[in-house]
Predict the 3D structure of the following.
Amino acid sequence: MDSLSSLSIFVATPKQVEQIKRQGAEQWARGMTNEQYFRRLELVGQGEGTRNSSISVWVLGSRDNPESLDFVCSCKTIRREGAIVVGANDPAVDDVLCYSVGGVLTPPHHRGRGYARHMLRLIHWVLAPDSHLPSSFPVEWGAPPSRNITLGDAAFSYLWSDVGTVFYRKCGTTTTTFDGWVPAEGLSTVWRVNEYLTVARRFSKSLWTWLDEHGVTELWKADTLGIKEDLKCTALSNEKTLCAVYPHGGVAEMPHRRAQVLWQELSPRPFHWGIISPGVNILSPQGDPQKLPKDCCFASWTLELRTDRPKTLSITRLRCSKEQFVSLISVLIEYAESLSVDEVHVWNLSSESREYVSQVGLGGKTYEREVDVPCFKVYGLDNTDEAIWMFNEKYPWS
């Protein structure tokens, strides 16, 4: 095992990126062919959310040979726009930069040696501002990693864990601190279409406006304005630090593009990717996104059609009263049935909505996920357990 001081993280070279893609296909191409997996990477790379140098691919490798293809671990970070607000009598919502962390992969012959943990500990040192890091870099880790001038500006970072809630917490900024990513709520509610279809047809008569891909893109822009206002209102009655990822700028598009390689093969090809309360104008008369009415309800979704799991309509962003959710979920169950989709999923549905739809026989099944567990870290806060990840839904998943 190489000593940790002999290793550091580096921005991957083009040849290393190609190696990472091949390794990723071996690890994550389940439910699709290798050709489909590589095509998915192309589609994601064409999206707004990964353009303009927002994505960085990292390797943990030897300081003496950082361009070697025998790196011991890799991951990626994607820069996003978000917000932070501290509870107060007159809270101010600060627009900030945040980063998603994902694609953590250790080649099989390097596993079991703590490389993934060390790489993630070093990631803090390239993302966070100096003022939010310990005053000295751990001596046993050697010299601190070089930081690109475009980094070092993260207010918080976030990821989804497939290895429980403890590992990422231990990926802290030093050898002795467990100040890594802390778990947030990770509930899923699932409706089996064939089980709930009959009941859904009783409540699906309400009118909704259906949105195509352009429509949901404009919706996410307008939703960003609403998120800012909702954060401020919540902060008035909550003393904790609140953070959120904005859905615009290609963020909410990412889960859609990740799944596109499979849903684009459907015939006929799906056209609708969102619904919104009827009569609501997403755009102002001048053609700009505008804040939506408080009583406006909407949802956006993608279709996940891997062959190794049930076909799923996955709600990525939801804003809806408990009363209107009965109609909304009924409409989506019917729509899923028209596409021969097996299930409808949503992350972190409010307890009020879960209870309300249960009363009419549309309760679904709610459980705590063991994979895709959301975790986050707020830089500059002594204890991220004292923060809340707001709008913790699937739209920023990457």
